[in-house]
Design goal:
The protein is of the alpha/beta class. It is built from nine helices and twelve strands. Strand 2, helix 3 and strand 3 form a beta-alpha-beta unit. The protein binds 2-acetamido-2-deoxy-beta-D-glucopyranose (NAG) (3 copies).
């Protein structure tokens, strides 16, 4: 062979070799990538803390709500913890009964406040959480104790949403569909964990604790330039039919929350409508008249 040819040949084989080497390392790299990461699920598991703001004395109502939430199923990739939230205990019998509840259910949060609604309880709730909870959640919901939350509906609704800088609920005024104006009603609104952390450290909420609690939360976020992601869950959240003008409408299957359940007959209607109280037939009981 002529020297020129030998040179060309070696250049060619060198390039072939480097291409081969490149492919090999690429392949190996891909394999290690595949080994070190599990296939990424479409959306990670979702965790939510629902804090139901109530009063220490309402033992039987609390127990009823435990049953209502305990009886509902949630999708396997959604973890929801329901806890009852109130201020410092004031009576001997509260200390006894609530100690028993803690031992049995471990679903109580006692804040360092005296019982109130519009004098900082909601601030105390959110701002305490990062210090007192054993774990963090993707979202924290503040809910009233006269609300039925349909956990399946809420789970489906949240799965699609951003996990940060999120402010979610039923925007007021009633007829508005614009979550960027107004604020989310106190019946039940959700903040992502980063906003809970912000409330715990920012001066804005700390210095504005007194006033209608739901409106204040909206103001904190607006003043702090927070809550870039806002969602109003309509028509999924509403007041019980015919109890509050245009905030009310008929019960619908795709419900997230129904508010103003201050009477038994309303709870009965709601739980029946959503099939929460339907039990498996058995020889041991009958629900017939
Ligand atoms: C999601 O939750 C399920 C059920 O608890 C668990 O088996 C799975 O490992 C979790 N996945 C992730 C990505 O955390
Ligand atoms: C509760 O708050 C009061 C007044 O702010 C404070 O003096 C007290 O140390 C707090 N108690 C606890 C247990 O944090
Ligand atoms: C309740 O169950 C009935 C009968 O299975 C069904 O037709 C209805 O759609 C259910 N209601 C809701 C709100 O899921």
């Amino acid at each position: 062979m002529k020297p020129k040819c030998i040179l060309l040949n070696s250049i060619l084989s060198l390039s072939a070799l480097s291409i081969l080497l490149f492919l090999l390392t690429f392949h190996l790299n891909l394999r290690t990538v595949h080994k070190s990461f599990n296939p990424v699920p479409a959306q990670q598991n979702l965790s939510l803390l629902i804090g139901i703001l109530t009063r220490a004395d309402l033992h039987s109502h609390r127990h009823f709500l435990r049953l209502v939430y305990g009886a509902q199923r949630t999708p396997p990739d959604v973890k929801i913890h329901v806890k009852f939230v109130f201020c410092r205990l004031t009576k001997v019998e509260q200390r006894l009964l609530i100690a028993l509840e803690v031992l049995r259910f471990d679903d109580i949060i006692i804040l360092n406040c005296t019982e109130n609604m519009n004098f900082g309880k909601t601030y105390e709730f959110f701002s305490s959480l990062p210090k007192i909870l054993p774990q963090q959640y993707d979202y924290v919901m503040k809910a009233d104790d006269d609300v039925f939350i349909r956990l399946e509906g809420l789970s489906q609704s949240l799965k699609k949403l951003k996990r940060d800088d999120l402010y979610y609920g039923f925007v007021l005024p009633c007829t508005s569909y614009n979550p960027y104006s107004g604020y989310m009603a106190g019946m039940g609104f959700i903040l992502s964990w980063d906003l809970v952390q912000w409330i715990a450290v920012s001066d804005i909420p700390a210095q504005n604790q007194v006033g209608p609690e739901d409106k204040l939360v909206g103001q904190w976020l607006t003043w702090g330039n927070k809550g870039k992601n806002r969602v109003t869950e309509k028509p999924g959240m509403y007041d019980f039919p015919d109890t509050n003008g245009r905030c009310s409408h008929a019960l619908i299957p795709e419900t997230v929350a129904v508010h103003r359940l201050k009477r038994w007959d309303r709870w009965v209607q709601v739980l029946q409508f959503f099939n929460v109280t339907r039990v498996r037939p058995s020889k041991m009981y009958s629900f017939d008249k």
